[in-house]
Amino acid sequence: MRFFLVFLVAFGALLSSCKVEQLTTSQPEEMTMQQPETDTATADISLTEEPETGEISLPYQPSAPRLHDLLHTRLEVQFDWENHYLLGKATLEIQPYFYPQSTLSLDARGFDIHSVSMLEEETLQPLSYEYDSAKLHIDLGRVYTREEPFWVVIEYTAKPDEVQTGGSEAITSDKGLYFLDGENGKSPQIWTQGETQANSHWFPTIDAPNERCTQEMFITVDPRFVTLSNGTLVYSQMNADSTQQAAGSGEMRTDYWKMDQPHAPYLFMMAVGEFAVVEDHWGDMPVNYYIDSAYAPYASAIFGRTPEMIEFFSEKTGVNYPWPKYSQVVVDEFVSGAMENTTASVFYDALEVDDRELLDDHWDGIIAHELFHHWFGDLVTCESWSNLPLNESFATYSEYLWNEHFYGANEAEYVRWEQMQNYLAEAEDKQVDLIRFRYADQEDMFDRHSYDKGSCVLHMLRNYVGDEAFFAALKNYLTEHAYTSVEIHDLRMAFEKVVGQDLNWFFNQWFLAAGHPVLEVTSAYENGQLHLTVLQQQDLEKSPLYQLPVSVDVWVNDKKTQYDIWIDELEQEFYMDLSEEPQLVVFDGDGALLAEISHEKSAAEWAYQFRHSTSFLHQLASLRALVNDSTASATDQVLQEAMQNDFWVIRKLAINAQEGQLSARDTVRLALLEQMARSDKKSLVRADAITALASVDAEKYQDLFLAGMRDSSYSVVGTSIAAYAQTSASNKTADFAPYRTYKNFNIVMALADYYVAEAVPEQLNWFAEKTEEASEETLYYLLNYLAQYLATMNDNNLTDKGVQLLADYARNHPKYYIRLSAYRGLLFFSEDPAVSSLLKSIEEGEKDEKLLELYRSNPY
Predict the structure, then answer these.
(1) 103 burial class (0-12, 13-18, 19+ CB within 10 angstroms)?
(2) What is the mean pLDDT of residues 768-775?
(3) Residue from 179, 171, 9 nearest 78 by CA
């Protein structure tokens, strides 16, 4: 599963540019967008969490006990669209796991149970049962041994909308089955989301990750709908029999999907909708893309590298893609980023983009992530949610692997740098074991530890054992444990079998302990020797004293020599014989450590490092150090060089580092910026260059901004609108009129900011239209702009209409962070008694505990 943190601080990082001056938490590159800057005030309240105080007080969470073994699941489903019901018949093949059993307990949440029977020689024998709306307890009628499989048939109605459900940062709802009636020009859809234990909201099962079975799915729908499920489509047939019609009329169609390989129940999926199906293939295997018909022309541009990814991951792991097909479907209002259901991954609708949006960024990261799960998560599955990093850390590391393969080392290091920053930002308030057996809720496992820290740890393991051993161990692990569930020690032993050495030290400190190294490094040249001192400064009461294999790069006479050292003490000293004083010393020359490293260097050394290191991480560190050193004479020249660097991220960071620092006297850098704004091959760099020029002299570059508004890149267009809005041009509103129909985040935000800053009249209808059609990322910010617009216009009639619009979102939107944004907007008007009363009624109707806690802690 790919998730995106949706708390306010995370969304701020998601939608802003990274800066050299500070390390910012940001989402992986596929989500990088630009937000036009604004000086307008916001009514801000923030979501905060108490720092972790240790896991010992939390309950121990064992693997689910296995009393029975679920062998096969056959589901026959049809739908009551009006009431949002699933009418189901489940036939389960089960046998006792080891000990004889006379009863069976199944997870079945919020059902109406109509009958429970034993299937014996094609006849149904009724069984006695008890049902408490969560567990179905069945009396089997006699004792069965592990050599006696049996078949249980359950007829039921699932009512997901009538069940009390929860959610988390990663997965905003856990009701399992979702009906979308089709609004704002979109067609109706049904789709499912099973992780962690939500599929038992729509079919009875043993809902645990250490269970697995084969599967059949018979889905009866109106013929206008396309269906998708796990495995392969065996047949699709029309049913004239009215008994096959559920709350509808006319002929219906049944699609029969079959999955012959066992997989975990949380990976079962179903999607129903008027999807366009764009066909592709990997060899003879179908690789298809299900998407809204409006975006079908762009499906191959969005997903088209999937076959090459399948080939690459098959070669890299030494295990061919193990399933009969691979489909990817984009659905509306998905409750997470994406989900790796076996053979059929589901993605949220942010992936529905056109070719102009793809000029700014791509979605390869999330696509690779869900695909790699088909080895790590689907083929080999964590036996408990405590072991979730065995799924998610690998999937997150696949983003590095794919970028390394397809885009090059710098892009891969940029991805890993972002992952490190995501983890380190979370670690400021939360440090827990990667593999943790104590937690309050399994959803707590879906955090930046399981994803980003785990990915960085895998990279350190790869760096330590070497590429050949690393991928040989992965092949060993996948082959030995295919179609089974695993725990962390299975991974350790797979590596030990290959490398022939004990790796407990590595797994204990990185997977089974909290924290990360905090290192203070000093270096000096004395008497023909480099004297290197390393001090571990992390809190040893909460984190281990680390054993760290580290490389040290030393430049003498413009020649680099790499030294390998081993750190295993609180303070250690190392001596290296050198012919003369080094020009540069780089601790962690491989850039592999997940650590906070402090190593003081002179400005000359930082400049030398920027010019001689080929590593993105080391060049980034140089830029940061020089920008933060106001006395460094080398900074201006290095920034000029950075603006001409081959890697677009360095160019972008160099521009951002100069924000607010340039003046009309900086003619050389301004000339470079103008050139970059006009012709840099990376659209995000062009956009940042335009922003930088606008901050120096917006009037001077009016023609450049007008040209930028005709750019093919939405990012450049949006930034150009924001820049042109800063000029004294008299016809701005008219110039911006052609862009009012655009839905792209960059353009909508730029216009919203202009309408607020300039108090442009008669824009409430535009705001209302944009909120209706906006993506969730856009809507989150747009609601705040709407509130600012209402406050700026100071028109009671407008305010009354706008407040009702905000209140509707605050009460009814399915995503809690959208409800929060609307609530924040209403705070602009909290001094009005009517709005104050409205806020109280919103609080009374809110069921999300995190939002309620927030509302109560921020009295208006």
Answers:
(1) middle
(2) 93
(3) 179
Which are the contacts of 16, defined by CB distance < 8 A and separation ≥ 6?
A: 24, 26, 34, 35
The token pair at 25 is 């938490």
What b/e sequence results for 739-761 when a residue is b if at least 16 CB atoms lie within 10 Å of its CB, and e otherwise?
beebebbbbbbbbbbbbbbeebe
CA end-to-end distance (rounded Å), the chain: 38
What backbone phi and psi angles, to 5 degrees, belong to 373? -60, -25
Beta strands in 338-482 (DSSP E): 338-339, 344-347, 380-382
The confidence score (pLDDT) of residue 23 equals 24
Q: What is the mean pLDDT of residues 402-417?
A: 98
| pLDDT band of 8, cuts 50, 70, 90 | very low
**Tokens at residue 142, please?**
């006699």
Q: What is the dihedral of CA 805, 809, 811, 816, to 10 degrees?
A: -160
Structure tokens at 276: 């366009």
- Give per-residue pLDDT as tens, 673-730: 999 999 999 999 999 999 999 999 999 999 999 999 999 999 999 999 999 999 999 9
Instruction: Decide if 487 contacts 448 (C-beta within 8 A).
Output: no
pLDDT category at 36 given cuts 50, 70, 90 is very low
Structure tokens at 509: 């400190």
Degrees (nearest 5) of the Cα angle 563, 565, 571? 135
DSSP tag of 814: S
**What letter does residue 51 receive in the DSSP assignment?**
P
pLDDT band with cut points at 50, 70 and 90 for residue 44:
very low
**pLDDT for 56:** 61
Chain-centre distance for alpha carbon 481: 27
Question: At residue 22, does pLDDT exceed 90?
Answer: no
Residue 849's SS3 state is helix
- 121, amino acid identity: E
CA-to-CA distance for 716 and 152, rounded, in angstroms? Answer: 60
**Half-sphere exposure in the Cβ direction for 790 (13 Å, CA):** 27
> Sign of the C-alpha dihedral, residues 144, 145, 151, 156?
positive
Mean pLDDT of 454-477: 98
Can you spell out the DSSP letters for 621-649?
HHHHHHHT-TT-TTHHHHHHHHTT-SSHH
- Token reading at 497: 């079998």
DSSP 495-539: HHHHH-S--HHHHHHHTSS----EEEEEEEEETTEEEEEEEE-S-
With contact defined as beta carbons under 8 Å apart, do 563 and 554 qualify? yes
**CB-based contact 298:355 (threshold 8 Å):** yes
Alpha-helical segments (H) within 201-354: 299-303, 306-317
- Closest Cα to residue 377, out of 391, 394, 360? 391
pLDDT exceeds 80 at position 627: yes
| Higher per-residue pLDDT: 633 or 436 | 436
Look up residue 294 and give its DSSP letter.
Answer: G
Do the beta carbons of residue 362 and residue 411 sit within 8 Å?
Answer: no
Residues β-bridged to residue 221: 253
**Residue 405: Cβ within 10 Å count:** 17
Cβ atoms of 251 and 242 within 8 Å: the answer is: no
Q: What are phi and psi of 795, to 5 degrees?
A: -120, 115
Residue 426 pLDDT exceeds 50: yes
Exposed, middle or buried: residue 186 (CB in 10 Å: 0-12, 13-18, 19+)? middle
Residue 727: is it exposed, middle or buried by C-beta count within 10 angstroms (0-12/13-18/19+)? middle
Please determine, for residue 52, whether its predicted confidence score (pLDDT) is greater than 50. Answer: no
- Is the pLDDT at 579 greater than 60, yes or no? yes
Q: Are 682 and 707 in contact (CB under 8 A)?
A: no
**Across all residues in the chain, what is the average pLDDT?**
91
Tokens of 750: 């730029």
Sheet containing 285-291: order of strands: 276-282, 285-291, 326-330, 344-347, 338-339
Q: Which two tokens stand for residue 517?
A: 């190294």
Query: Is residue 699 within 8 Å of 728, Cβ to Cβ?
Result: yes
